[in-house]
UniProtKB/TrEMBL annotation:
Keyword annotations from UniProtKB, A to Z: Cytoplasm, Methyltransferase, S-adenosyl-L-methionine, Transferase, tRNA processing
Gene Ontology process terms (BP): tRNA N1-guanine methylation
GO terms for cellular component: cytoplasm
InterPro entries to which the protein is assigned, alphabetical: MeTrfase_TRM5/TYW2 (IPR030382), SAM-dependent_MTases_sf (IPR029063), TRM5-TYW2-like_MTfase (IPR056743), TRM5/TYW2-like_N (IPR056744), Trm5a/b_N (IPR040601)
Ranges of residues in domain SAM-dependent methyltransferase TRM5/TYW2-type: 79-325
Record bears the keyword Transferase: yes
Organism: Halococcus morrhuae DSM 1307
GO MF entry, a single one: tRNA methyltransferase activity
One Pfam assignment: TYW2_N_2
CDD domains referenced in this protein's UniProt entry, alphabetically: AdoMet_MTases
UniProt keyword annotation of Transferase present: yes
Record's protein name: Methyltransferase
């Protein structure tokens, strides 16, 4: 049956499917199909599909055999896929257990189901998890053609930010010098290096840096990624004036590192500054902090990007800011 479908590269299929599912746009009555390296995801409302996705007409057979969690439960559960680990966020333990059982019974290729048991805390930005099914918290996550090995119990990683990471890294040129100031396991650094950039990736978490180095090897970019375990404020002394692009993905406290960012910046540097602020003024505090820290630069805000809703009346946002000396 010819139906509206979102077309994407096969390797990006799960990332795109998850994004559409978050908007409740996936047509679960019809099959997702793959043809010649492209994946076709049937959608319920083509007009509601975000502009970044290509909507085409494609033959989507009626789904007959594979049961998904929603088929078993009778409602659409909210969850995230991270490799073969499924992450849920349920306050009701009984509901969480029901979702986990349905996920494991379904056709999803899943080994472990975890429920969030705490907020992100500490200098390593990790959280506690309740094991609902399976055991291992280590997995390999695939995103826009890259592979990321990680242990979600030991490092910070959010699959929800895949689209935002892709937005940023797609702009990177082969001759750029990039500093990822809070790199984690490399979801910004690795794609940047795959585009040919020289990348310095810094993180305090030794486990994250170990995975970062493994992921650089896994994605064949080890020669372009310098992974450093430590405080980026110290690293800035060695790489002063080096960066053409800076990634500051540390919402809530990125402003504390703006002096280091200014020190790292070259005479023409693009800064991606992530922040979480009240919806009444989501960009103002970050912009004011950047201008105050970069007084010797001409500061131009090129993009104000809302990344996602973080909490009631709070937004996770990004400011793309050009610094010219």
């Amino acid at each position: 049956m010819e139906l509206p479908c979102v077309r994407a590269a096969r390797e990006n299929g799960e990332t795109v499917r998850a994004a559409l599912a978050e908007h409740e746009l996936v047509d679960r009555d019809h099959e997702i199909t793959v043809v010649d390296g492209s994946i076709f995801i049937p959608v319920t409302d083509s007009e509601a599909v975000p502009d970044e996705y290509a909507v085409v007409t494609h033959d989507a057979p009626v789904r007959e055999t594979q049961e998904m969690p929603a088929d078993i439960l009778g409602f659409e559960p909210t969850y995230e896929r991270l490799g073969d680990v499924v992450l849920v966020d349920e306050d009701d333990p009984e509901r969480a257990e029901r979702i986990a059982a349905a996920v494991m019974e379904s056709a999803l290729p899943v080994e472990t189901v975890l429920n969030r048991a705490s907020k992100v805390t500490g200098e390593f930005r990790t959280r506690e998890w309740d094991h609902l099914a399976g055991g291992s918290t280590e997995t390999v996550h695939r995103e826009y053609g890259c592979e990321f090995a990680l242990d979600i119990a030991e490092v910070y990683f959010s699959p929800r930010l895949a689209t935002e990471r892709h937005r940023v890294t797609e702009k990177i040129a082969a001759d750029e010098r990039v500093v990822d100031m809070f790199a984690g396991v490399g979801p910004f650094a690795i794609p940047a290096a795959k585009r040919g950039a020289a990348v310095v990736a810094v993180d305090l978490n030794p486990v994250a840096v170990d995975y970062l180095r493994e992921n650089a090897r896994r994605n064949d970019v080890a020669e372009r990624v310098t992974a450093i375990e430590g405080d980026v404020r110290t690293v800035a002394e060695e790489y002063e004036g080096w960066a053409d692009r800076l990634v500051m993905n540390l919402p809530h406290s990125a402003d504390e590192f703006l002096d280091a960012a200014v020190r790292l910046a070259s005479d023409d540097c693009l800064l991606h500054y992530y922040d979480i602020q009240h919806e009444s003024d989501p960009y103002g505090p970050g912009e004011r902090a950047i201008r105050a820290a970069a007084e010797e630069y001409e500061v131009t805000v090129e993009t104000r990007q809302s990344v996602r809703s973080y909490a009631p009346h709070e937004l996770n946002v990004c400011l793309d800011v050009r610094l010219r000396g």
